[in-house]
Amino acid sequence: MNVWGKKIRVLVVDDSIVARKTIIDGLSACPQIEVVGYAVNAQDAERKVAQLNPDVMTCDVQMPGMTGIELLQKLLPVHPLPVVLVSSLNLKVFDALHAGAVDFVRKPDDTQGRDTFILSLVQKVIVASNAKVRRPRLAREPEPAQAAAPAPTLLGATPQQVVIGLGASTGGTEATLEVMKRLPADIPGMVIVQHMPPGFTKMYADRLNRLCRMEVREAMNGDRIRKGLALVAPADLQCRMSRLATGEYYLSCTPGERVSGHRPSVDALFHSMAENVRCKMVGVIMTGMGADGAEGLLAMRRKGAFTIGQDKESSVVYGMPGVAFEKGAVCEQASCENIAGVLMRRLQMYK
């Protein structure tokens, strides 16, 4: 149910008959959801949205004629409804998220069955029904060289003076980018946990690497944490920070049980930082459903970490940062546009 206790009215948009039937049947089986209609292409979707006024729309990214991305760019400024993308393993899903979609689900394939797909889609539709829709920005994202002003630097800082952990979920791909593109190339070593299906974390890391000043890549087991490098936790592995006898830090990326319902888990990372980090550390928790990361961030703060939480106004879903704030885990709240400034001011104090 949505916040008003009514069924969530969903419009399904997909040009594939098979995919439409799978999605409609799966969503209709959930008592909280009512599928009010379907559209076979983007033009049909525009008409159906105006006619049916759904609470949530599911949308394929790749469609003949007008793509899902073009549909969102045209539709959301007029009808700002939450959209959950249904996509194959395709880099364009991040362009669609940039265009204003709330979240995405990977289409079933050899690595993921129908039941898993439907369960994930149902959960994301329910979350999306209460999400804050971000209006799309029609301009292309600037490359780092096109930024209006150079980012500040932290020249002279040693690699292990500070380590940074950042966690996000629903709405986090774009919110994290808003933070990362404002940070300098010589940022202290960072680890990012973003809830995401397998296959997409490498593409996301590559996208951040293209758009941000520091090096960003998907983490591998044993990677050293170092200045100028941000590591994205791989999907379906738990990532924890550990300390070597030399005082250096490294990332352990291994299979394991879900923590706080997730793998990778923000809590798993943050708890490992609280337990193992002996230098200065910063924890950042951003938009996302649920409470993953809240307990871990509290543990970090109790160990002397500086902690930042995204504020309610800029969060697509004020779940994870809201719970963390209520627990007293957050030292300072800020919008996703201002988190980088808060972080930089703190790092300048550590020099």
Descriptive key words:
alpha/beta; Rossmann fold; 5-stranded parallel sheet; 351 residues; 7-stranded parallel sheet; elongated; 2 domains
Structure characterization notes:
This protein is an alpha/beta fold. Helices cover 32% and strands 21% of the residues. The strands form 3 sheets. Strands 8-9-7-6-12-13-14 form a 7-stranded parallel beta sheet, with helices on both faces. α1 (17-28) links the parallel β1 (8-13) and β2. The protein is elongated, with a radius of gyration of 20 Å. The model is unreliable at 138-150 and 155-159 (pLDDT under 50).
Quick summary:
The protein is 32% helix and 21% strand.
What topology emerges from the helices and strands here?
Layout (H helix, E strand, L loop, with lengths): L7 E6 L3 H12 L4 E7 L2 H11 L3 E5 L7 H8 L7 E5 L4 H7 L4 E4 L7 H15 L33 E7 L3 H9 L9 E5 L5 H12 L3 E4 L10 E4 L5 E6 L5 E6 L11 H11 L3 E6 L8 H9 L3 E5 L9 H7 L5 E3 L4 H12 L1
Helix pairs in contact: 1-5, 2-3, 3-4, 8-9, 9-10
Report, as a whole number of angstroms, the end-to-end distance.
Answer: 50 Å
Count structural domains. Answer: 2
Average pLDDT confidence is 90
From the spread of the alpha carbons, the general shape counts as elongated
The main sheet comes to: 7 strands, parallel
* CATH fold label of the largest domain: Rossmann fold
Count all strands and give the number: 14
